[in-house]
Design goal:
Blueprint (H helix, E strand, L loop, with lengths): L12 H4 L6 H15 L1 H4 L2 H27 L7 H17 L4 H23 L5 H20 L1 H4 L6 E2 L4 E2 L2 E2 L3 H22 L3 H11 L1 H6 L4 H28 L1 E2 L6 H14 L4 H12 L1 H16 L5 H22 L4 H14 L8
Antiparallel strand pairs: 1-4, 2-3
Helix pairs in contact: 4-9, 4-12, 4-13, 4-14, 5-6, 5-7, 5-12, 6-7, 6-12, 9-12, 10-12, 13-14, 14-17, 15-16
Amino acid sequence: MLFRQAGIFHTDYAADRAMFPIPLDRWMVGVLLALGLAAPWVFSSLALTSYVMPWLIWAAAALGLNLILGWAGQFHFGYAAIMGIGAYTAVHGVRAGIPWEIAVVLGGLMATVVGIVFAFAALRVKGLYLALSTLALQFVMDWVISHVPAISGGVSATLQAPTLRLLGQQVTSEAGLYYVALGWCLFVTVFMLNLRRTALGRALVAVREKDFAAAVIGVQSFYYKLVAFATSSFIGGVSGAILVFTFYHAVTPEQFSVNVSIELLAMVIVGGLASIIGSYFGAAFILLLPGQINQLVAWTAKLMGADIGVETLAHIPQMVYGALIIGVLLVEPMGLGKLYANVRNYLLVWPFGYARK
């Protein structure tokens, strides 16, 4: 029943190394994939463009940050700046006549170059000093983007994104833009699912746990940290470009400011470090839950006939939202992904709970 491992005999390594060895996992993934493909016909236009599509893009960005934070164990407080670099590079590339696909890849590569340059300096320190170094990246890039007219057009300027052209064809429909975002999110997810099964993924985990011990067994910690920063920056740069072309349709410095880096960090921490499904949960929690709480609080106050001032009504959802974050981390410090894993592990042996003892 449910996650029971009946029929799994562990007779060969290929079966044990399968991405989803348990049948129910495969069924769940299939159902979710079918729902994702059918989303333009299942959800309303408002829900598709305002909730589902941005959730997928931010989940992909959270997976990129989780690579450096969860797998490699390195702090990064400037991930929004990395996304902004990719977004501005891709927009300028398309405006210069470069095909959209190549421009998006160039955005990822430019973000990778900047990420590596800062990583060379940042990786000489650890802990809070590394966090401060990456925060400096955020502030430096904020200033450069805002004050160099050739990049952003000047302070508070808005740079219009050209129409997305995929393989030479204009993509203007809501469904088409959604499928572009879905395709990128699926690509990043599959990459991360395979990463943890590779030698690179195991090396990153070894560096995360204890870099000195990893060096003893031949794992060059600096090299793998640099690879983690480069790969994470590429994912962030492309995610920023996808976000601008499919959702914002214009790019401004405020879209990738320091508060966005903090929100991305919250997505990873609340969702769960080194958890793929946790990145999806964390993105939904940080991105979608506040609006639902606002509607719920307003509806509850109206239903009860409570005479609450507009200012108070605006702050109550923030209090509830903050309390929910604290509650989640108190119940399970490893995040929402670990809560899901706990339920799944319980169902693996349910109803024979004594089998775990």
